[in-house]
Amino acid sequence: MMYETVVVPLLLGFLEGLTEFIPVSSTGHLLIAGHALGFENAGRTFEVVIQLGAILAIVNVYLAKIVRTLGGLGQDPHARRFAMSVLIAFLPAVAAGLLLHDFIKLVLFESQAVIATALIVGGVVLLVVDKLPIIPRHRDAERFPMLMALGVGVAQCLSLIPGVSRSGATIVGALLMGADRRAAAEFSFFLSIPTMVAAVGYDIWSSRAEIDITAFHEIAIGFVAAFVSALLVVRWLLSYLSNHGFALFGWWRIIVGAGVWAAILWG
């Protein structure tokens, strides 16, 4: 019983924090690992809610910048412009998520084949992008043009498919529009805050009838584990992306996706 109610949620929470902000798809990894460990939860609420733990880690790391931006909305044009760019990038996923929520949760989340395929395709995309001769024009995440922010938001919609990776879609989208790797990652981090808060809030509301109140302790364990592991990853990722490419993440995605397909084909 302890294995099912403590050890498994702890492992999945750490996995969420480790994978939320690197371009490998935390949702895909959680669904695959949960399936392998025999972990079941009503409405897939566990996998969604514990992502708030990872988001809390981002808030912790960028708290001073967030407070400065919010405090300057009334009188600082730069703060207003940055907040507006994040809002514009946030809206496409809201619209797509509301329209496709039931299909995503009831169909895509339950398909190991979809997740495996998305992991492999995303890995190939990362390897290709890593080789492109992109010359960065935007090196400050707080100064992305509005049209560019909208483009990143449209790219984020792809992450509604489990296995695509929200961070991977937004980082690649920003890179292709001229951001350098660090700025692309930072904008992705900021965009994750309203996106995930909205996603979790809507998921809890829409699945409220299915939520098992006795499973709250499992969510709490996963939440704390995700927060701790995400804190370890965020700063490392910024440094890594500034000095390395995406090959590590691309090959990891391909290996995991191929492993899942092998498991599917071999029963």
Automatic annotation (TrEMBL):
Name of the protein this chain belongs to: Undecaprenyl-diphosphatase
Q: Does the record carry Transmembrane helix as a key word?
A: yes
The family database entries (InterPro entries) matched by this protein are listed as:
UppP (IPR003824)
Supply the PANTHER family for this chain.
UNDECAPRENYL-DIPHOSPHATASE
Membrane listed as a keyword: yes
Q: Which residues cross the membrane?
A: 49-70, 82-101, 113-132, 144-164, 184-204, 216-238, 244-266
UniProt function note = Catalyzes the dephosphorylation of undecaprenyl diphosphate (UPP). Confers resistance to bacitracin.
The entry sums up its family as follows:
Belongs to the UppP family.
User: Main localisation, per the record?
Assistant: membrane
Give the reaction(s) catalysed: di-trans,octa-cis-undecaprenyl diphosphate + H2O = di-trans,octa-cis-undecaprenyl phosphate + phosphate + H(+)
Extra facts: Bacitracin is thought to be involved in the inhibition of peptidoglycan synthesis by sequestering undecaprenyl diphosphate, thereby reducing the pool of lipid carrier available.
Organism equals Albidovulum marisflavi
EC supergroup of this enzyme: hydrolase
Q: Where in the cell is it found?
A: Cell membrane
Which NCBIfam families does the record associate with it? Answer: PRK00281.1-2, PRK00281.1-4, undec_PP_bacA
As for membrane topology, the entry says:
Multi-pass membrane protein
Q: Name one GO molecular function term.
A: undecaprenyl-diphosphatase activity
The protein's UniProt keywords, in alphabetical order, are: Antibiotic resistance, Cell membrane, Cell shape, Cell wall biogenesis/degradation, Hydrolase, Membrane, Peptidoglycan synthesis, Transmembrane, Transmembrane helix
EC nos: 3.6.1.27
